[in-house]
Design goal:
The protein is mainly beta. The protein is built from two helices and 15 strands. Helices cover 7% and strands 47% of the residues. Strand 5 and strand 6 form a beta hairpin.
Length: 191
């Protein structure tokens, strides 16, 4: 009887770190003529969820309409959870546009009316969509955040669909078509 028995207990620290949700873009662009399946594919495209312990965290999305035919602007809420029950949320915006709405692309990111695009210091390249190639368009830019009225007279005109930004901060880009429809979108340049 001098026998001693040892038991070993392995205690792992509790996981209390929530998953991280990342987007390739803060906006999702869908057209009213797209199918519901196309809308859902675009809502799920460009989403990455990572977790420190769970190799397969899951996420759900809320806030979208049943059909793109409804049109409008919708805040999407992405909720991620891991096996330990930790949760995180992130938001991006769903824009459902008419197929004829003018769209300005900024360095490959959609610059929607009153939306925001992130960029780095350097050349900014613009592309217009849904505007006839022969239709005159005025595009201007200015450091700071301004309304359409403030941009008409005190901003620099963009030549050849490119311009240079040399300082970090907010910039406003103004677009006016021949039929006098106009909008601004915002650019935030990181340093």
């Amino acid at each position: 009887s001098g026998k001693v028995t040892y038991e070993s207990i392995c205690a792992l620290p509790k996981d209390n770190v929530a998953p991280v949700i990342e987007f390739t873009s803060d906006t999702v662009l869908v057209y009213e003529t797209d199918s519901a399946d196309t809308m859902m594919r675009k809502i799920r495209d460009g989403v990455t969820v990572r977790d420190n312990n769970d190799s397969k965290p899951v996420y759900t999305v809320t806030g979208y309409p049943a059909s793109p035919a409804e049109g409008g602007i919708f805040p999407l809420v992405y909720t991620a959870s891991d096996a330990s029950g930790n949760r995180s949320t992130a938001e991006r915006t769903l824009y459902i546009m008419d197929k004829d709405t003018p769209i300005l692309w900024i360095n490959g990111e959609v610059g929607l009316p009153y939306g925001k695009v992130l960029a780095e210091i350097g050349e900014i390249e613009l592309t217009l969509q849904n505007i006839a190639a022969d239709q005159p368009v005025i595009i201007k830019y200015r450091k700071g955040m301004y309304t359409t009225g403030q941009m008409k007279y005190y901003a620099e005109t963009v030549e050849n669909m490119t311009f240079m930004v040399e300082e970090p901060g907010h910039y406003t880009i103004y677009v006016r078509t021949q039929d006098r429809s106009e909008f601004v979108t915002y650019l935030y340049v990181e340093g």
